Amino acid sequence: MIEDTITAIATPIGTGGIGIIRLSGSNSLAIADKMFNSWNEVKVHEIPSFNLRLGYVIDPGDGEVFDEVLLSVMRAPKSFTGEDVVEINCHGGPIVMEKILRLTLELGARMAEAGEFTKRAFLNGRIDLAQAEAVIDVIEAKTDLALGVAVNQLHGNISERIGYLQKRLVSVLAQMEASIDFPEDVGEIDCSETRRILLNIKETIHSMIAEGQRGKILREGLTTVIIGKPNVGKSSLLNALVKENRAIVTEFPGTTRDAIEEVINLDGLPLRIVDTAGIRETGDVVEKIGVDRAKKLLAEADLVLFVVDAATMLTEDDKLIARELNKDNTIVLLNKHDLKNIEMTERFINETLPEFQSLKISAKEKWGLDKLPILIRDKVFGNNIVAKDRNIVTRSRHLSALNKAVNYLNEAINGLENGNMVDLLTIDIRGAWDSLGEITGETIAEDVLNTIFKEFCIGK
Ligand SMILES: Nc1nc2c(ncn2[C@@H]2O[C@H](COP(=O)(O)OP(=O)(O)OP(=O)(O)O)[C@@H](O)[C@H]2O)c(=O)[nH]1
Ligand SMILES: [Mg+2]
């Protein structure tokens, strides 16, 4: 059991209708009692769990009234953290919230670290680690679809899938150990049956990994970089996609110097779109930094939108960029389609980048862009559309644990095929079990745990 009582402002800093100060720990009720005068003179420790009382927050030192508030009590173990929790709903002004927070500190609470409420919920066994991480994902979901998947994870659906796989591994392990300990009674293990079960578990994990690649995009957003030589209409494209004049557009080449990033919701798929400086050889120091940055972004992109000016002949600058591109993650946009001459460029592009998908657009006239979402979805998801209610893995941490489990299973399966000693096989199967346990937090190192909760904000 954790001893000290923590406190934090749980609502965003700034002005709002309501602000919440949250206390958790064994002294929560006692601290709240010292600073709360309820209208009907009830003491905080007399308030039943999940009940609200109206009253004043008062400085017990000089009797100063800070605010009129609603106070709620949730007792251990039936609270989010599993500890005694008090929430003070005050008015949402920064000064009021700060004063009430400071009072809870003076009365013996300690300032909560980022994610500490959720960390306590995990340490007290209220939720597992995958569910704790889902709390952040719900808060940070960028689209409806991403939210649906995160809520599913919060319900524990991923953990359930993992638990089922672990259970199957344990039963294999139990048979192996029995065959070691009681060879007369149990006999040898059935190698082909064991191999079949392990292959089947491995297959399930494989499909979770494949789905997870897409799940990760759903959570983190698809980094989409707009690339091209100067003046082809990259910034015009960004503006058309975000539907506002976000980037400066002029007829002068070299207008955009720095990378400009915006997030849009493309049919449920969060896209982090980055407009970049036009790539060309340049003597201008500032522009050169922008060009280098664009090249770096190109290398890190999940998806590349290569823009060419279809109304003029392609130049050496276009060809240099084209050489850096990969057909699997690039869509070529033949821009300025509202102007003449575009057939030449189109033919040229078809010859230079034969297997690349392309689309004729006019960023200026906002024409042809309606087909872009379909192309992008196709590139990213293929036929595997993610449904909201799917239990898919969305975090790199989970993906790497799944990959680790697959490696152990491969070792075990190879071992079986080579007729290795059974006690050697059990080591690999235990390794696979442990790797899966990292996802739910059963088998995780303290330092990893701390890094995970650092992702949270204070008060969560
Ligand atoms: N006719 C026509 N003009 C366009 C189109 N898209 C962009 N332009 C014009 O092309 C010029 C350059 O557009 P920008 O969007 O600034 O081009 P950019 O690629 O961002 O240029 P840099 O930032 O310099 O690399 C501007 O004068 C735009 O109005 C289009 O679809 N049709
Ligand atoms: Mg630009």
UniProtKB/TrEMBL annotation:
EC numbers, comma separated: 3.6.-.-
GO cellular component assignments: cytosol
Localization in the cell: Cytoplasm
Transmembrane segments: none
Comment on bound cofactor: Binds 1 potassium ion per subunit.
Top EC group: hydrolase
Pfam families (UniProt xref): MMR_HSR1, MnmE_helical, TrmE_N
Positions annotated to bind Mg(2+): 235, 256
MF term (GO), any: identical protein binding
Essential cofactor(s): K(+)
UniProt: (6S)-5-formyl-5,6,7,8-tetrahydrofolate binding residues: 22, 87, 126, 460
Boundaries of every TrmE-type G domain copy: 221-381
An individual GO BP term: tRNA methylation
UniProt similarity note: Belongs to the TRAFAC class TrmE-Era-EngA-EngB-Septin-like GTPase superfamily. TrmE GTPase family.
Subunit structure: Homodimer. Heterotetramer of two MnmE and two MnmG subunits.
Protein name (record): tRNA modification GTPase MnmE
Organism: Metallumcola ferriviriculae
Lineage of the species this protein comes from: Bacteria, Bacillati, Bacillota, Clostridia, Neomoorellales
Gene that produces this protein: mnmE
